[in-house]
Amino acid sequence: MHLTIADLKKGEKGTITDSSSEDIPLKLLEMGCLPGNTVHLLQLAPFADPMYLNVNDSFLAIRKETAALIIIKKIDE
Amino acid sequence: MSKQINVALIGNPNTGKTSVFNALTGLNQKVGNYPGITVDKKQGICKLSRRVKAHILDLPGTYSLNASSLDENVVIELLLNKNDKDYPDVAIIVSDVENLKRNLLLFTQIKDLKIPTILVINMSDLMNRKGISLDIELLEAKLHTKIALVSTRKNNGIQELKQLIENYKTISKETCLDTSSIDTAYFESLQKAFPNQDVYKLWLVITQDANFGKITRQELDISKFKTKSNQELKRLQQKEAIKRYQFINSILKEGQTIDRSKATGLRSKLDRLLIHKVWGYVIFFWILLTIFQAIYDWATVPMDLIDTTFASLAEWVKNTFPNGGMVTDLVAEGIVSGIGGIVIFIPQIAFLFLFISILEESGYMSRVVFLMDRIMRRFGLSGKSLVPLISGTACAIPAVMATRNIENWKERLITILVVPFTTCSARLPVYLIIIALVIPEGSIIGLSYQALTLMALYLLGFGMAIFSAYILDRVLRTRHKTFFVVEMPNYKLPLLKNVIITVIEKTKTFVFEAGKIILAISIILWVLASYGPGDKFNNAEAYIEPTTQTSYERNDQIAAFKLEHSYIGIIGKTIEPLIKPLGYDWKVGIGLVASFAAREVFVGTLATIYSVGSANEGENIDTIKNKMQNETYADGTKVFTLASGISLLLFYAFAMQCMSTLAIVKRETKSWKWPILQLIGMTAIAYICALIAFQFLK
Fold first, then answer.
1. What are the helix (H) ranges across B180-296?
2. Between B105, B268, B485, which is nearest A60 by CB?
3. One CATH from 3.40.50.300, 3.40.190.10, 3.20.14.10, 3.40.30.10 for B3-170
4. What is the largest CA-CA distance in chain B?
5. Distance between CA B321 and CA B422 in Å, rounded?
6. pLDDT tens for residues B463-481?
7. A-B contacts at Cβ under 8 angstroms
8. A20–B238: do the CB atoms touch at under 8 Å?
9. pTM confidence score
10. Using one digit for the tens of pLDDT, what is the confidence trace for B50-62?
11. Å between A66 CA and nearest CA of chain B
């Protein structure tokens, strides 16, 4: 089982390793959700959905089901 | 002879593109429509020097040339068509100093179309505070462009930008990325098939067709070229994005340094409060309450003023224009009261757009979307549906248009379908007059019954919208694919100039668009009420027996008799059996019929009908309210009772009575199916609810 953005807890960071799933909107890729970039989970709405992230210096919110498609490697600090 | 340069203003949302546009053009701008679609087309003129003017087109905000919405598609359609009269001589890419990396993605795409491109780095006044420093010379050289550091807030850099526009011919057309490096074999075969075309342009056409379905194009017909599957295309698009970021990162590494210790953390502090699991919602509802307070309390002062002004204006026309002439009557009873019915909405619409534009400009709106998405999704809506639902309290037309940034088609469709349930300002005059008629004065714990009723009607509208969304979500079966990406922009103090321009523009649009219809209907109604077929209308005097009445009373009776037999009276009488069970008489019926064009004409219609019906001269003009209060059936019972009043309120709360909204829904959904469903569904709900209420309360 791969780790995805949806598995991050508030304040945790990860590095994207794969974002090639067909269901990820292109817009998200173009905003910086690309392999190698760092993702930082800033805040969560109630029920942990949507998720508020900083990816590639962009601040954005996506739904949990989309976040679950982006595979990451956790960064331990 | 003066020269004109075509300029296209392009940029990501939230970069202050509109501020740059406003700074360049001031009030010298106009908003129109692109042919066939309802995307706002904003253009303006900017004087560069004594002999050179720039025609500036403010294109919809977009993150890239790969469009995912109609608004964004406008940008690429223009840039792919060299024959378009608006095709730019020079493009200005507006970027925000804090999001330079992401903004440059779009910049490199435009550059690769070989259009001379100026890069505006906006909000440059924040550089010091945010610890950002830029090597402009190096960036200009590596990006093959000219850069203007601009701060619209401090009004810096606009002059320099104007000079760059005037000298656009000196800007290099060199591209940023070699497109064919994405997939050498594929792009070679593409070039072979179309040797005379630019390969990046071809690539854009192919991917755009993949996103939007085939578009017929004269200049480029790629339909014969065997393309790859959508999945393969998407992989290539991802590769393109990666390549572009590699290029951008390599440049920013040298050209930009960020001292992160200087970041002020305003964002995280405000976010901690504004999207807090409890306080976030408390603050949001408090803001909503303030907006409603403004619309329904503060706006009443100017509205009352407008009301009395137009009433006395109509009176003045009657007294000064030639007595008894047809033109006088038409002007006084048709046109003046018709225009009054439009102007009266201006204060409310202006207040609403004032608040909405402040919330949008400050960056708060995205936080609301974030807070509400989960809750709204339960009802088949999206967090982004909230803005349309709030806008719907002013008018459903801009609200339906505001659904465009909802990426998911099903969520967008449901939002469009339920938005007309929210209490738009056109319902307000109807509510106000009927509440004043049938709800008793008096109060409970300091809140008047009348105010509570009004609030209940608003809640009812929202409740019905949410409830029907829930039903539609279960009924509509479409393939469900989630697209929900919201940028969370930096918090900013709204620029006064931007706010004022938005308020003026939106109000103007409402007055002219809705105004045309309202005015036309007022005139038609007046004509229908002033003429009739047959002897009973044209020779009414002969039908009223000359008894011992005073001449005033007799005139009144004749006028009422005439109205009953005028064209509109006949219409009202015809539908009377249908509306009788709801508790309305034929005069209310006329109001209902007229309202199917637009609700706001209801009060005006009753005003027209009752003033046509009262021929007394010299008598004080009765307010419409008094006239309605005294309206009785033949047996002496009042027409407007609690039962018929509540029934009427419910009918107006739910019925689809706005042609303009139906027209917009048709345009936005590209089908008559949805507006017809709205018309029939909503009206049926209205009829049933009104029927139950009247029969129960009678």
1. 184-193, 199-212, 230-255, 266-274, 279-293
2. B485
3. 3.40.50.300
4. 102
5. 42
6. 999 999 999 988 887 655 6
7. 108
8. yes
9. 0.79
10. 888 999 999 988 8
11. 7
